[in-house]
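Q: What would this chain look like folded?
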Amino acid sequence: MRSSKSSPLFKQKIAKAIADLREATARAAWVQWAAIFTFPSTRQRASAIVDPEALLLGSFAVSSQERRLPTVTYLWARYQSSLLSVQRAKNLAARFPKGVHEELSRFALIALHEGGDLRWRSIAAGS
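A: My prediction, written as structure tokens:
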């Protein structure tokens, strides 16, 4: 007897659920960035900002779902990186996949070289 977990329909449902979750996460990230910055536009208003470092890392994780997120994170690296905790970003990054670590290293390079924020040196050096 075949397990229902190996059926093509079950796998399709799981894939759709994952895609829906990524899309919802990208929308939530955009709402949070809109609450921080004045230039992003969204019709949905944020009720709170929980954690800007987690927002940054989460944005890296779902940037393929929301094409505006890389631009926002670049601008944040260049102009507002001093508002983030480098140590907190490092600590949280350990909970994310390798691709997010690579994006954080790029963020650190921009913050260091274009933003002049020397605090990001340790992360930028690892890239």
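The chain has a mean pLDDT of 85.
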